[in-house]
Amino acid sequence: MKIETALPTHFECLVAIWESSVRATHHFLQESDIAALRPLLLNAYLPNLKVVIAEDYAGAIHGFLGVDENRIEMLFVDDASRGKGVGKLLLQHAIAESGVNEVDVNEQNPQGVAFYRHMGFEQVGRSELDGQGNPFPLLHLRLVK
C-alpha cells in the first residue's frame, strides 16, 4: 500500500469509497442525507482540501484522507478494506507529513471514535450540530501522544 496525492480524476472513486464507508459506519444518516452530501463532497469539499489516497500496487484505491492545515477534515476507508490498517496508514502519514493534530468525529460513529482514541486522540469538546447544522453531534478531538 502506498500513499499518493489525490488528483481530480480520482474524485468520483473517492465519493464511491466515502459512500461505502458511510453506509458501513454512519447508520444515523438517512438516504436523503447521503444524497445531499454526495455533490458537496465531489464539488466543494474534495477540491478544497489536501487529499491523499491509500492505493495498492495494482492501482486500486482503498481509502482517502483530507486535511486543512492541522485538521483532518475527512478519513474514509472502503468498507471491504476496513480493519486492514488502511486508516491507520493514512492517519500516520497525515500526522508525520502535515502535522495534523485535530479532528471532529460524529458522536454516533462509535467505530470512528474508538479508532481515533486508539490512535492517541482525546476529546477536548463537543458540538450538538454537525458542520451542516444537522443534529448529529460532533466530538472535537486532539492528538495527545
From TrEMBL:
Transmembrane segments: none annotated. Pfam families: Acetyltransf_10. One of its GO terms (molecular function) is acyltransferase activity, transferring groups other than amino-acyl groups. Residues 1-145 form the N-acetyltransferase domain. Keywords: Acyltransferase, Transferase. PROSITE patterns: GNAT. Gene3D superfamilies: 3.40.630.30. InterPro entries: Acyl_CoA_acyltransferase, GNAT_dom. PANTHER family: PEPTIDYL-LYSINE N-ACETYLTRANSFERASE YJAB. This is Acetyltransferase.
